[in-house]
Structures are given as C-alpha cells and as structure tokens.
Amino acid sequence: MSKALITGAAGFLGSQLAARLRAEGQTVVAIDNMSSGTEQRLRPFAGDEGFTFVAYDAADAGLLALPELVGVTDIYHLASPASPRFYQALPFETIEVNTTGTRTLLELARRTGAKLVYTSTSEAYGDPLEHPQNEEYRGNVTTWGPRACYDEAKRLGEVYCYEYGQRFGVAVKVARLFNTYSAALRNDDGRVISNFVGQALAGDDLTVYGDGSQTRSFCYVDDTVRGLRLMMENPAANGQIINIGNPVEHTILELAHTVIRLSGSTSGIRFMPLPQDDPKVRRPDIAKAQSLLGWKPDIALEEGLMRTIEVYRGRREGGGP
Which of 25, 124, 193, 315 stands the most exposed, by the fewest C-beta atoms within 10 Å? Predict the structure, then answer.
C-alpha cells in the first residue's frame, strides 16, 4: 500500500489531493508550516487514522529525520505560496521552499527510493513569446521584479529535479500547472476567480486589471489532481516536465462577464492599472500529457464556475469564511 507525503497539505491544492488519496485508501502524511494554508482545510481529516498532519516547514532539512516519513513511497511537493498576494508578501519563504525545500524533498526521495512529483507553474514561461506554450519553450522571464521570487524559484526547483534525476536516478516528475481553481480557493486568496466570484456575490464591481484582453487558461481542481495522480503512477512521466492545464483560453474580461452572468449578479466592471510583469497570454499545449498520460481536462469553465459560485454563495448565506 502506498504511503504518500504531501507538502503544502493545508493549501488549496494539497488538501484536495489529500482527500483524493484518502478516498483511494492511501496513507497520507501531510506537512505544512501554515504560512498560507488554513486549519479549516484539515478539518475533514480529523479522526482519520490514515491521515497524519505534521506542522513543519518543508524547507527545513530536519524534515529528513521525521519519524512520520518512514516508509514513504510517494512524495508530492506542493508547498509554496501560489497567489501573488501571498508570495509577494513572503518572497524569501517562497524562494526557500521552492529551492532548498525542493532539494530536501529530493534527498528524501533519493534515500528512500520514493517517487516525487514537483508542482511547478506556467509562470516558468514568463510573459511568453510563443503561444500556446509547450514544455520545450524556455520562456520569456525576468529575475528583476515582483513576480520573480515565485517564477524563478520554481524554475530553480526544476533544475534541482533535473540534477537528482540525472545524477541519482530519482523518479522525479515536474508538473507545470496552469491556473487551477475551485470553490476550495480562499475567499481572500487574491487570484482572479476567487476575486471575481466574491465580488459578484457581494454585488461589488469586478476588478479587471488592464483592459482585460490578457488571457488565461483555467483548470478545475479535479482535473489537476487527476493529472498529478497519473504523473505519480506512470513511469513514462519519470524525468519529464508536463503541462497540466486546460487548453481552452479565455480573456479576463470574458471571464468577468461570465461570472456576472452565471451568478445572476448586477455587478459592473472596474478597470485598474495592470500589475508589473503580468503575462499577456497563457495557454498550455497539452499534447505531452495526452500522449504520455492519456490525460486531458474534463470539466469546462462554465461547469467549474457554477460549482464554485454555488459553494461561495452557500458560505455567504451560512456566514462561513
């Protein structure tokens, strides 16, 4: 039976992955330093003997000595602030967990023979000059700006993965994720879908940065989790970087109008200056995921938005966070 370690398990994606693994009957050890994770996301696992939570920083090399990690077979390294709101507030922590932390987890995998999936990001492509982006594209990036602490740390994390795979034969796989979302996002997360849905349900104007012509590709969390599971289990993914995202592209202005329509809101739209280094386009080429894993997303944007809106509405009506 597999024993999985999830770093960042109190975060949006980590908690959803933990629920999936427990539903499959896997033992889960969850690690989080709670810098951007929440206790609320861990509540569904209370009393679950197959789930162990350890409050710990994944960047701390002492992790290698934790007794809870004996027998780990699968490592999902998700720990990192992912929203600009959080990683720009915690730049040094973001750099540390994606570099030193990634090396620590790779060292654990080397010592134990465990497989490792590292969640990188579409931000590795920067403000791309090639569109859509496939895994061979090296990106249009900068080390000098407010997003660099996240983008460049993720890229260096990928380098560590390459070296451990090449030098030590670690079964490591890198997932470049594209704008994962669901109702499990914190209301105050700061990412565009949580912002728009929260504003629409409150009757506030939706905040669009720039003219809204910039594009993104949104992947519902169930599809992302399924992609991560396939990467972990399929040996064909070893030593590979694979885009996990929805190849259907939407402008931010289109997304705003869609959220207003689906939520039945009377909100308007307020335009604000575009943040520095905000990418103009973002769309994954998923041919590699399809050929190696047989993966493609199943949940269309409107379906995912409706699920998200209904849960957010229920929280508001119930007085929840």
Answer: 25
pTM: 0.95
In DSSP notation, 185-246 reads S-TTS-SHHHHHHHHHHHTPPEEEETTS--EE--EEHHHHHHHHHHHHH-GGGTT-EEEES-
Which residues sit opposite 206 in a β-bridge?
A: 269
What residue type is assigned to position 253 of the chain? L
- Fold annotation for 3-180+219-246+283-297: Rossmann fold (3.40.50)
244 alpha-carbon distance from chain centroid: 10
* Rounded Cα distance, 273 and 271, in Å: 7
150 carries an active-site annotation: yes
237-290 per-position pLDDT tens digit: 999 999 999 999 999 999 999 999 999 999 999 999 998 888 899 999 999 999
Domain-by-domain residue ranges, the chain? 3-180+219-246+283-297
Stated length of the chain: 321
DSSP assignment of 271-286, as one string?
EEPPPTT--S---B--
Residue of 150, 160, 181, 312 with catalytic role: 150
Which residue in this structure is represented by tokens 């499959």? 24
